[in-house]
């Protein structure tokens, strides 16, 4: 499986966008498919390199997931992975009109490729990423 991503220009400074993404409590409001239901109370208020954070999820049935931050460049890049090994990654590049924001779902190091092929369809993942980008843009003022 390959990386699936989408990007858009958001009319906001890179740091403001990063601040929203680095707050786990913001993630349910950004979820393009609504699968992220709630941030765990014990989560850090701001993500940092190596931070662990949990979410209540629902894709068909409810479940809980713990993620670990694996890529972190303040104001520019944030990515996390959970037990299966696939990664959600955000990159932010300042532009004249605000910031170019890219979200990616990266399954290349996932342990259960067969499960991901069965549950994550590329077209659906891309649409959900585009919805996440729309929600982020609305959240930061675009």
Structure at a glance:
With 142 residues, the protein is an alpha+beta fold. It has helices spanning 14-21, 27-30, 113-119, 122-140, and strands at residues 4-10, 36-39, 52-59, 61-73, 77-82, 87-95, 98-106. The mean pLDDT is 91.
Mean pLDDT: 91
Instruction: Report the uncertain regions.
Output: none
Q: Structural class per helix/strand content?
A: alpha+beta
Rounded to an integer, what's the Rg over CA atoms? 14 Å
Helix content: 25-40%
Please give the order of strands in the largest beta sheet: 1-7-6-5-4-3-2
The shape is globular
Largest sheet: 7 strands, antiparallel
**Strand/helix succession:** EHHEEEEEEHH
- Strand percentage: 35-45%
Tell me the total number of β-strands. 7
Distance between the termini: 32 Å
Q: Helical region count?
A: 4
Structure, described:
With 142 residues, this protein is α+β, with helices and mostly antiparallel strands. The protein is 27% helix and 39% strand. A seven-stranded antiparallel sheet has the order 1-7-6-5-4-3-2. Strand 4 and strand 5 form a beta hairpin. The longest helix has 19 residues, at 122-140. The chain is globular. The mean pLDDT is 91.
């Amino acid at each position: 499986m390959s990386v699936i991503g989408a990007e858009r220009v958001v009319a906001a400074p890179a740091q403001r966008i990063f601040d929203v993404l680095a707050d786990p409590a913001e993630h349910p409001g950004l979820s393009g498919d609504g699968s992220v239901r709630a941030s765990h109370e014990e989560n850090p208020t701001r993500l940092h390199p190596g931070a662990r954070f949990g979410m209540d999820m629902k894709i068909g049935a409810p479940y809980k997931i713990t993620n670990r931050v694996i890529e972190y460049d303040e104001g520019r890049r944030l990515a996390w992975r959970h037990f299966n090994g696939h990664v959600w990654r955000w990159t932010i590049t300042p532009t004249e009109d605000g910031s170019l924001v890219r979200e990616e779902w990266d399954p290349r190091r996932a342990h259960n490729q067969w499960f991901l092929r069965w549950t994550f369809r590329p077209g659906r993942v891309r649409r959900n990423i585009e919805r996440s980008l729309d929600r982020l843009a609305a959240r930061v003022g675009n």
